[in-house]
Design goal:
alpha+beta, 3 helices, elongated
Length: about 110
């Protein structure tokens, strides 16, 4: 059965940020998102992070930088990789956008 296009669907950036935040916080070893200040991301031609998430959407593709605080006894590489996998899957499944890049920066341990 063919469906007729009834109009435009737009998803706010904040919705993607919320999906990313909720998904990452469920990964074992993630304590919280880090507060990141300063102008360093802008020098790298990236958006300044908001609540530990910098998000860029272009050509139906998502690029994101995540700044995390992880548990002190966790394997940081494993936690970061798990976050990348979980967030990528969530975005592709829930929103249908292609994920081009998920960079995870461990800012601290708790």
């Amino acid at each position: 059965m063919e469906t007729e296009q009834l109009g435009t669907v737009r998803i706010a950036k904040q919705v993607l940020a919320t999906i990313i935040e909720m998904t990452a916080l469920k990964v074992p070893g993630v304590v919280r998102f880090a507060s990141v200040g300063g102008h360093f991301p802008r020098f790298l031609d990236r958006e300044a992070p908001y609540r530990g998430i910098a998000l860029t959407i272009a050509d139906q593709a998502v690029r994101t930088d995540l700044y995390l605080v992880v548990e002190k006894d966790s394997n940081m590489v494993q936690v970061a990789t798990s976050v990348q996998d979980a967030v990528g899957t969530a975005i592709e499944h829930m929103v249908g956008l292609t994920v081009k890049e998920i960079n995870v920066y461990i800012q601290d341990v708790a």
